[in-house]
Amino acid sequence: MSQTATEAVTGTKLSINQLGKTYGKTVALQPVSLEVRTGELLTLLGPSGSGKTTLLQLISGLVDATTGRLIIDGVDQTDAPVHQRDIGVVFQSYALFPHLTVRENIAFPLQMRGTPADQIKSRVDDALAMVGLAHAADRSPRALSGGQQQRVALARCLVYRPSVILMDEPLGALDRKLREVMQDEIKRIHRETGATIIFVTHDQEEALALSDRICLMNNGQIEQIGTPREMYEKPASVFVADFIGESNIFKGAMENGQLATEVGSLPVQAATSADTSAVMVRPEDIILNGSEPWALDGTVIESTYAGSDTRVTIALKGDKMVIVRRPAQMDDLARGLAVKVSWKPEHACYLDN
Hints:
Radius of gyration: 24 Å
Largest sheet: 6 strands, mixed
Strand order of the largest sheet: 6-7-8-3-9-10
CATH topology of the largest domain: Rossmann fold
Number of strands: 20
Order of helices and strands: HEEEHEEEHHHEHEHEEHHEEEEEEEEEE
CATH superfamily of the largest domain: P-loop containing nucleotide triphosphate hydrolases
């Protein structure tokens, strides 16, 4: 079967095959492979230096790959120059022209592509309406708020209808509330346009809120790819469990059907692998003062009201700290209070080497 036919059958927009980048002896990105589905919003998530931005630069063509191939819509684009790739990029810095109006900024990529003037006007009008800035068409970008400037940058990318849209931490400079508003805007625009979007962020909450799938990266390689729910509920490693959301991780080794840890022997599910070396429990799954015979003795160190819930820190044996999330309407737990800590084994996640 030809490459094009394969792409059509699988619904794959972009295929990354062993794409890697080195600078001399420094490995910025180990050879990685992944497929981006047509119309999905895939987030490249990871800490600073994980390789996510390097991968985005390789896809855009801003950086040449050392190894591997990049296929877009069945066509090998590995060696194609930036201007020949049907890709749009939205940067954190907005990169707007201060001497042009909002309308002129959005029209610029169409003018560079030789689009007829009548089409430019209608497409710019559509893009302005899409991002809710029709009223600001003739303003200078300097007269806009940070969120509005980011919408202009997004409209400028959408207006020429690229095959793939790359977003490099576009909301990083915005405050929390404005970031949440823009997250909803991006989700709406993605839903209405059906665009294929690759979104880079270091913020795991942002990734969980936005993504169809998340590609979590670390040390220049892919740790796990999955839906937000899969990443949160079924992490593939201790790193994933620790990076995605809050977690309580107990490390140890299997002995006599239990996990022997620094806080004691913990129960596991019947089918748990003998190679299991850690158990992860989310704060909302911790039970306080339950009836389990193996429950761990703990002492409340801190209880912090957080609006919808209360975050409780509990010290176990060996100064192991456990985080618990409880509904805010439940009674406060005083510091120094002795409690029993447990969870249902089926609500835990078991990780191995």
